[in-house]
Amino acid sequence: MSDTDSFIDEVTEEVKRDKLFAAMRKYGWIAVALVLLIVGGTAWREFRIASEESAAQSFGDGILAALDEGDEAARIAALEDVEGGATGAAAILQMLIAAEEGSADNDAEAVARLQAVADNTEVPSIYRQIARYKALTRGAEVVSLEDRRSGFEALAVAGQPLRLLAEEQLALIEIEAGDTEAAQARLARIIEDAEVTAGLRRRASQLIVALGGTVPES
User: Fold this and answer.
1) 3-class DSSP state for residue 162?
2) How many CA atoms lie within 13 A of 194 on its CB side?
């Protein structure tokens, strides 16, 4: 290779390096930003997960401590001081407070609290249904028979998770209204349902016997 060719090659390499350095100066910040974004995103996810776990543990500890209080009034006050956090956790907290209010014979307050959870569209559906079911079962003294009937009928729709429990409550309402034949027929359908649990089948059978009926063979 001649000296001229060698010189040309050296100049070419210098030009390439200059272009590379210029490109790095011009666009290198993008690569740095991407690296920071990836690293920062991972760190943020780890921080968020750790924060959520810490909040959940604090929530659980607060509930356990509140439930250790000596009487309903103290437990209610302690539960009301617990930070609810996410909507699902807050719904559970409200249902626990309602349970304590019911134990203290404050049925009206308990039903109102449960109904508020049931009406909150931001709460997950399953919690809303549980709250509505509890409000209806707790509300015998404060909710009319017809309102309870219509409420349980809405929960007894096919595909709903509390369907058979709502059917059981409808049978009890029919007994309360003096329609024992309808109650026995409904209880028999519960017993024959493929999704019935052993406990519910037993309760339905006992009710049929108490009403003077015959338990269908399962």
Assistant:
1) coil
2) 2
Query: Region 26-54: what's the mean pLDDT?
Result: 53
Is 1 in the same domain as 55? yes
Q: Of 37, 67, 97, which closes a domain?
A: 67
pLDDT at position 26 is 57
Residue 19 Cα to chain centre, angstroms: 58
- Is 206 domain-assigned? yes
Q: What is the pTM of this model?
A: 0.71
Tokens 């998770």 -> residue = 161
Q: What is the pLDDT of residues 124-166, one digit of tens each?
A: 999 999 999 999 999 888 899 999 999 999 999 999 999 999 9
Which residues in 47-128 belong to E strands, given as ranges?
A: none
CA geometry: angle 174, 203, 208, nearest 5 deg:
55
Torsion of CA 164, 168, 174, 177, to 10 degrees: -130
Regarding whether 73 and 59 lie in a shared domain, the answer is: no
Asked if residue 210 and residue 190 are part of one domain, the reply reads: yes
- 3-state SS of 169-205? HHHHHHHHCCCHHHHHHHHHHHHHCCCCCHHHHHHHH
Which residue range forms the structural domain that includes residue 50? 1-67
The first and second tokens of residue 126, run together, are: 């399953």
Residue 151 located in a structural domain: no
Q: Is residue 153 part of a domain?
A: no
Q: At what angle do helices 163-176 and 198-210 cross, to 10 degrees?
A: 10
Tally of domains within the chain = 3
CB 110 within 8 A of CB 99: yes
